[in-house]
Batch of 4 targets.
Target 1
Amino acid sequence: MNRMNEMGRSRTVLETAATVLLTVAAVSVASFYVYGQIAGGPGSGRQVVEDNEIENWQDDTALGIRVGPADARMVVTEFMDFTCPFCAMVSPVVDSLLSRYPADVALVFQHFPLNGRSLSLPSAVAAECAERQDRFRPMSQLLFAQQDSLGTRDWVSFAREVGVPDLAAFEECVKLSAESFPRIGAGRELGLRRNVTGTPTIFVNGRRFGGRSFEEFADVAEQLGIEPRD
């Protein structure tokens, strides 16, 4: 009888462990798709750039924050959220792209704050306040690089680290609501019109782009005849 009880308890433990593992796997997969899937590497067999080009896509770029030349031959538009871990993974890739092709590649940030995340809008506001003092790019880089610190540090400490000159003005700015910054709402509305459902969602010259690696971005640049900086 004792042996049967022990066998029963062992089976219960194994079943519980299996249930926990399946639950963790399901949550991981769900999170993967909520934030936007990281595309496979070269040779994965999927189409990196879609054929369909958005009509008058250049008009969309006016709604975002542009980093890079106004006459860039390759314009990367990213719908992003500063709390999105996959956006944080893409950020240094895009930085490398801009450094490699400074005269011909531009990045346009479009806010797409995710629903149900308490820090999505406040971090977007902090970035917009930095933009008012010409420090958007370093602020965005820092927010992604120190994503784990969001909510545990005050926004002024981020501003100080990236060299925002008027910290008092910044401190007052971050007290404003997200509605005070038209780009935040405009970016989300634009994303919904473009069938954006998660972040990061990326377009290159008006075509949806599924790549996430530097090599995939560089392949597109090469196809456009863009030469890297020596």
Target 2
Amino acid sequence: MNLDDTFTRVERRQLVDHVLIQLQKHISLGHYKPGDRLPTEPELMKQLGVGRSTIREAIRILVHGGLLEVRQGAGTFVKARQVSEETLHQRLRREDARNVQEVRRMLEGETAALAALRRTEEDLERIKHYLDRRSELLSAGNYVDYIDADIAFHLAIAEASKNALVVDLYSSFSAALHDYFSSSILDVDHFKDNTAVHEKIYQAIRDQDANRARELTFENVGLCHS
């Protein structure tokens, strides 16, 4: 038998891409935070099932892209946030509330739909934890921690989408949302308790009803903006 007829050659480029995707995903999801050291080359080789040259090429690309840095004699580390990310953070903080809400509608709506399709039981537990936490804090009048719990609720939904880029985008958004929520909750005359719609969003994600999760998220953004 001619082995060339039964096996498909695996290109080295594909292996490098595989390693790149895995490393970027772990960094985006916060498994490795800025300042953290990555596992050693032998550890990465074992975990990812590839050779040393593949690991080195992937790390070289990520170093060139500004995501990692190699410290001689110490190892490879995740770099701090880049200036471009900080600029986005500043832009969101000064952006018109209407524009922020329009982007929230697009981002959070589709994120909730993806989460409904891809969530795990562990994701549901995390989302439910922050749902209960935000309700408890609101009832206690602890508005500062309530805002943090509310953002954590939506970030948990983003993580349930299993899309690392979505997690990055929502993380960047969270700083601007924190400022927006802080100002809106102090406006007692216009503040609306949206706990009920948050509970329905959780239920839709639990029931894997993507369309309803999206619609309820649109409703929630509308409540925040009205």
Target 3
Amino acid sequence: MQRILIADDHRLFADGLRFLFQFSELYEVVEVVTLGGEVLPTLQRQSIDLLLLDVTLPDLPGPEVARSVRAFRPDLPILAISMETEAATVQAMLRAGVNGYCPKTAHHADLMSALDAVCGGEIYLDPSLQHVLLYPSEPLPPVPTEEPVYRLTPREQEVAHLLVQGLSNTAIATRTFTSPRTVETHRKNIYAKLGVHNAVELTTRLLQRA
């Protein structure tokens, strides 16, 4: 059973999550806090396996809370939850070290997928936010000289966007009005340019470049 700490000042939402997890055999909410400053003290006195962190808390910005938690518990999965879906906000949380970002408007199944992913050591980004990976709101940071900068073509960006959503070559071909063989060629080019070997590594790589 994964023990969850919720940091969210919207008590109705937090209480709804607590009620939802009452029927789960995998997750349980052990405490709810409403201030960012309460997160670390709670982690110090409670055994917590997962943090659900609202991006907009009354006292501290979400990224600041995430960085402090990451410094204290480097291995603790953090899932950001928020009504905010602006690219700059999502990227700020990802840069601060959260393992995933899920809108509060997400369906129950998507939330559970997010929890399973971050607890399994993966990075999760809700499908509605995948564009954040490909179209950063800020200039990309300089890349070390030993790592050449490769730019994806517009078509490769489109295919990469669909790959990180878990679509197959056939499904992507249908979406892009091309053939599965063409999609496979794009996939190989994307992987080669970014130095990755699968969709999980692709997601991580795009997050690093976001």
Target 4
Amino acid sequence: MIWPENVISITNHGLFLDSPEYSEIVQQAKRLNVPFVVGITEDAGQNQFTNAQVVVEVDGTISGRYDKVRRVPFGEYMPLRSLLKSLGAPTDLVPRDARAGTSRGWLDFADTRASVAISWEIFFGGRVNEGVTDGATFIINPTNGSSYTWTILQTQQVAASQLRAREQGRDVVQISPTGFSAFIDSNGTVHNRTSIGEQQVLERSIQLRSGRTLYSRMGNGVYIWCLLIAFALLARRRSRAIRIGAS
């Protein structure tokens, strides 16, 4: 059972493990006999918070945690806060900064490994590739684009999930309470996409895949080489046209 990004917010310097929400999730995990992968935020002191996905097992143990590494600037944190504040910028619009995670981008649950890209991390191929390199068999993208509801970003995020699926040869599960939820197969085809913010339980069998694609092995170098080859061909064609014109 996979839930979206930051659907549980723990305030007053509390911990998810001590919250009533945790107890309720354990009850549901036992009832359904499946682990829950849940998006949480927790206070982290000194005007900071964490944004993470945690795995709650059927017996209530927290078997895994991934804290978001790529934070949204001017959304989840304010870069150069002191400087911008001295210049009169409204830095109080982002009163707290998300603390960046440092762990590798994957979680183990249900006897397999998933590459995890929280929210806009799906736009960065390297974040997803990290989990695939470490043996992930599919990709999850828990997200919560509440600041961008009814904007083109929601469609762009689905497109980014399609790109990651084709790059890695992996199925993607995208989960959102405020945007689109969907399954994307390894060919980039979208299945069971909800409407924006539609409350629905989605179920679908996905393929768990191993091995690595050319992109997974070379990263963005694939695109760089394609651009270099294209420029070389264009330069050669232009040079040939100039020689023909001169003759």
